[in-house]
Amino acid sequence: MVTRRTTWFGVTVLLAVAGAMQGQQPTVAQPTVAQPTVVLKGKTMLLWPAGAPGALGDAEEDKPTLTVYLPTGPNVTKTGVVVAPGGGYTHLSMLKEGEDVALWLNSRGVAAFVLKYRLGPKYHHPIELGDAQRAIRTVRANAADYGVAADHIGMWGFSAGGHLTASAGTHFDQGNAAATDVIEQQGSRPDFLILAYPVITLMDPYAHTGSRKFLLGDVPDPALVQSLSAETQVTKETPPTFLFSTTDDQTVPVLNSVMFYEALVKVGVPVEMHIFQHGGHGAGLAAANPQLRVWPYLAIKWMRERGFAAEVPETP
């Protein structure tokens, strides 16, 4: 991997460029990490045990869930991450962008909570965002039971799950203190965001039109399209963010990540972005991809620098 510094939007950015020099393939050593004992999989719970608001049936697809993965061992942290798999708002990559990520986080002492959210074409906004907000509230309400801190709850999303994550980071509230449900009393703002090849904008020309269609329908309200284009909703309260994408992504244009990065920089929100030249879309953790497999280690390094992961001997 070749790294270089460049000035982008008036800000110096560290770009990770894989294979950029005369077609050379980067050499990335296998990482070494102190591995704790891992609880492979915990309980899968309904986000709303009495029935989800807006449910259009009683099938599995009508029941959003959260699956808990808790680590044990010497490097356990106080951090929890809600993981949102991608799939264009029509299906979910629950293994590659869900369980695999949860176990990877567990091996670094971080608790993980894989979200199964409702999907189009049966469900449209605000259902998906409501499921994500409920997931964050649920982890926060049960933080002590999970061994995490209520102010160390992040969200990690891939592709359309990245859009859902960015939406959760730009549309949140402080909770309803008067609610009888203790979960609804909790704030829904994530404490940090990790966005992997994310859908960010729903506006042309850089929208992923499939995600827009299945989230908002065939003829969406233009005002809603703008409201759910996360780059237009960034404020100083948007959580610190880590972005990863590839230049040759033919599914979600890389400028989705660039626009969100630019918006965050403009308001002073801490952000780190890594753009690789090659790698396409949907790599997940990219363990078998010598060009991209360093990216999760850049993400966990960023988490450590912000106090969201433990220091462990790890060399990508």
Summarize the structure.
The chain has 316 residues and is α/β, with parallel strands linked by helices. 25% of the residues lie in helices and 17% in strands. It is built from 8 helices and 10 strands.
Description:
- With 316 residues, this protein is α/β, with parallel strands linked by helices.
- It has one domain (2-22, 36-305): Alpha/Beta hydrolase fold, catalytic domain (Rossmann fold, 3-Layer(aba) Sandwich).
- Helices cover 25% and strands 17% of the residues.
- The chain is built from eight helices and ten strands.
- The protein has helices at 95-106, 127-141, 143-146, 160-170, 209-216, 222-227, 255-267, 295-305; strands at 2-8, 11-17, 44-46, 65-69, 80-84, 111-116, 153-158, 193-196, 241-246, 271-276.
- An eight-stranded mixed sheet has the order 3-4-6-5-7-8-9-10, with helices on both faces. A two-stranded antiparallel ribbon has the order 1-2.
- α2 crosses α4 (160-170).
- The relative contact order is 0.16.
- Residues 1-40 have low confidence and may be disordered.
- How many separate domains make up the residues? 1
Low-confidence stretches: 1-40
Strand elements, count: 10
Sheet with most strands:
8 strands, mixed
* Content-based structural category: alpha/beta
At CATH level 3, the topology is Rossmann fold
Radius of gyration: 19 Å
- The rounded distance between the terminal residues' Cα atoms is 11 Å
Mean pLDDT: 89
Number of helices: 8
The level of helicity is 25-40%
- Percent in strands: 15-25%
> At the first level of CATH, what is the class?
Alpha Beta
Give me the strand/helix succession: EEEEEHEHHEHEHHEHEH
Shape: globular
Main β-sheet, spatial strand arrangement: 3-4-6-5-7-8-9-10
CATH homology superfamily name: Alpha/Beta hydrolase fold, catalytic domain
CATH architecture: 3-Layer(aba) Sandwich
